[in-house]
């Protein structure tokens, strides 16, 4: 007889747990191509960086510092520093080349706390050759009001170098300037607090009426769903006023709206840099239909002097006679009709003529003079 099949194991039914609804993150917003975040084109008024400046000495240089005989301020600063350290050198004749006077600059971020560190930039003030290997001694950094907000000190990082011998020298970059990462410690905070800002205003980095209205509409569209009421109002072409909802901190309110996506509007503008041959055109640049021709004229002047010998057994002298050859060549210019309803059509029309950057710059300037360029022309 066949053995009975074993019974299947009992199935344990798992208790069905209720699914926790996932709430949408109010700080995440979708940015489509052509759109940018509000935080990239506008900033909160009152939240900005502040410039700091100080004067100090860099020591430890390998004979590449200031010549104290030529830089009197370096010698005076060195004497004052040594006197504060208890060394009297007033009557001494200092001739060291291991010290350089420098200007130290830094930017103090908004709402930076006491004890945090910031980067500083160091630049030589005298006739030092290089700051490579130097160390900045303690230097107070003051603001525009004269108060000290940070103190800098540390080794200077220099990217350039200077190597010289008796007959040749090589210089790369700028060895007389460098940086000290995290080289300054903040000693005093700025008096402004985020919660103390009574009037919240977004300042546009590129002022424009349409961009300000689009920012207002984007914020109000989000606020209607999030807070139940509009919170933004455009004031002019460079500012948008905000009203903070009740029961919410300023930091959270700004964090929720600064990631909203908008499509900024820019004026039609053509920027021309004649030094480098750079032409930058905005997307809204338009060209009225015009006929354009451009030809290149090349003039070559060649000097081939010849020597004129006197006749044999004569009293004449050998003289050098000038001989100049002038050759003028003018390449045939193509006549083309350029009319752009968009930027792609305009660029395609200019490329069909086969122009170089210098020729494009000349044609763009002539189009503006003729009134066919419907954009602002900025020449740098």
From TrEMBL:
Record keywords, A-Z: Bacterial flagellum, Cell projection, Cilium, Flagellum, Periplasm, Signal
Source species, domain of life: Bacteria
Subcellular location: Bacterial flagellum basal body
Primary location group: other
Pfam families in the record: FlgI
UniProt function note: Assembles around the rod to form the L-ring and probably protects the motor/basal body from shearing forces during rotation.
HAMAP family, A to Z: FlgI (MF_00416)
Family note: Belongs to the FlgI family.
Quaternary structure annotation from Swiss-Prot or TrEMBL: The basal body constitutes a major portion of the flagellar organelle and consists of four rings (L,P,S, and M) mounted on a central rod.
Protein name: Flagellar P-ring protein
Organism: Flaviflagellibacter deserti
Gene, per the UniProt record: flgI
């Amino acid at each position: 007889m066949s053995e009975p099949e074993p019974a299947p194991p009992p199935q344990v039914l798992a208790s069905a747990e209720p699914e926790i609804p996932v709430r949408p993150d109010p700080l995440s917003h979708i940015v489509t191509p052509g759109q940018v975040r509000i935080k990239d084109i506008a900033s909160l008024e009152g939240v900005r960086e502040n410039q700091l400046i100080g004067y100090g000495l860099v020591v430890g240089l390998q004979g590449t510092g200031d010549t104290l005989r030529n830089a009197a301020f370096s010698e005076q600063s060195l004497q004052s520093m040594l006197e504060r350290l208890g060394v009297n050198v007033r009557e001494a004749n200092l001739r060291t080349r291991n010290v350089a006077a420098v200007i130290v600059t830094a930017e103090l971020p908004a709402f930076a706390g006491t004890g945090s560190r910031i980067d500083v930039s160091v630049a030589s003030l005298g006739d030092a050759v290089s700051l490579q290997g130097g160390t900045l001694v303690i230097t107070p950094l003051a603001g525009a009001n004269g108060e000290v907000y940070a103190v800098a000190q540390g080794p200077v990082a220099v990217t350039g170098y200077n190597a010289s011998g008796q007959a040749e020298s090589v210089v790369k970059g700028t060895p007389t300037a460098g940086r000290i990462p995290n080289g300054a410690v903040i000693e005093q905070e700025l008096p402004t607090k985020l919660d103390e800002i009574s009037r919240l205003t977004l300042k546009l980095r590129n002022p424009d009426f349409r961009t300000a209205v689009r920012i207002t509409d984007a914020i109000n569209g989000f606020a209607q769903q999030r807070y139940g009421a509009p919170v933004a109002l455009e004031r002019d072409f460079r500012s948008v006023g905000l009203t903070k909802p009740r029961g919410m901190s300023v930091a959270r309110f700004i964090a929720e709206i600064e990631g909203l996506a908008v499509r900024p509007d820019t004026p039609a503008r053509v920027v021309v840099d004649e030094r480098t041959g750079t032409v930058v055109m905005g997307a809204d640049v338009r060209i009225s239909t015009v006929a354009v021709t451009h030809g290149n004229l090349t003039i070559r002047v060649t000097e081939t002097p010849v020597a004129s010998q006197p006749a044999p057994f004569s009293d004449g002298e050998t003289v050098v006679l000038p001989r100049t050859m002038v050759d003028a060549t003018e390449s045939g210019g193509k006549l083309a009709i350029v009319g752009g309803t968009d930027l792609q059509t305009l660029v395609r029309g200019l490329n069909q003529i086969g122009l170089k950057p210098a020729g494009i710059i000349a044609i763009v300037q002539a189009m503006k003079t003729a009134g066919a360029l419907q954009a602002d022309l900025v020449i740098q």
